[in-house]
Amino acid sequence: MHIDLKHKKFLTIAAVILLFVILPVLRYLVFVGSPAGTGRTVRIFDLSKGTSLKHIATDLEGARIVSSARLFVLQARLKGDTERLQAGEYRFNDGMAPREILRMMVAGEVYARKFTLPEGYSIYQIAELLDERHILDGHRFLQQARNPALLRELGIGGASVEGYLYPSTYQVTAKMDEAALIRLMVAQFDKVFADKFAVLAKQHAMSPREAVTLASLIEKEAVVPGERALISSVFHNRLRKKMRLQSDPTAVYGIRAFSGPVTKQDILRKTPYNTYLIDGLPPGPIGNPGSAAIAAALSPATSPYLYFVAKNDGTHYFSTTLAEHNDAVRTYLKTSHGIRTTASTVAEIRNDRPHLAGRR
């Protein structure tokens, strides 16, 4: 009888321990490692600075991203993370385990959309890209790109940020606006230029603006990376001889993207950037060049060339005389209907000024 009572007491104590100690521990362990759902429920949470852990956990439970706010708070406390959560916007789904959600908030892995700016893109192409990908508003981007107050803030003396938006991949968070993205891109340009090109530009007696402007032409003209320095040499040679650069992309800048044949109408259009009609460099860049194009602008190849024409395979034929160049134009720009009437044939059309043919 005494043994039975002792046995029952033991079972009772064991049941109490199981009920109040082991089961909660098991419940907690299952909670931190198990998603609340299948991943179909997706929510974006704004974790503002100073927001309490309890408030965050309640929001997560209310959105059914986690199954228990109380256990989420307990998890953070046991791990010592209550004061380590970083502010920002986060994208969670109910297929994520609570331990992963907490880890992301501690690491500051905020929700951001990747935006890659290709080398050579102009502010107009960037605006289109932002619109197409629903990242930011293209119209507002162009407004900010020309915003005098923002230009003063960034120390840019031109009419826009053209040329100073460094081609790279950027994380665009939900809180960023068009001006914030521009600041980020210009900051990256400033860093790269200061680290790699500032000394070289001084050695060549070129201002940063001149270097970037020339680089933007090279970026638009060069298809094959290995030709950048050679194309740069043509521009340097022509500048030295005070010959007009007559670069096709400048004839359509601000009108349309340079993505095909440039017409006679294009090269005769009066714009401040059209190097068929103006002397020297355009007043500013016509796109946003990458490091390789800037390097080519500051370190041209040594060559006698004054002309080049596209060979329709991505490469160019380079010439030293106008006669040789016009022969190349006839060779490489013939179609089944004869020679195309483009900037590439302007020397034959006008026969009054040497020219060079840009990329097709």
Automatic annotation (TrEMBL):
Transmembrane segments: none annotated. GO terms for molecular function: lyase activity. Keywords: Cell membrane, Cell wall biogenesis/degradation, Lyase, Membrane, Transmembrane, Transmembrane helix. The record marks 221 as: Important for catalytic activity. InterPro entries: MLTG-like. Gene3D superfamilies: Classic Zinc Finger (3.30.160.60), Endolytic murein transglycosylase (3.30.1490.480). The keyword Transcription regulation does not apply. NCBIfam families: endolytic transglycosylase MltG. Functions as a peptidoglycan terminase that cleaves nascent peptidoglycan strands endolytically to terminate their elongation. This is Endolytic murein transglycosylase. It comes from Geotalea uraniireducens. The gene is yceG.
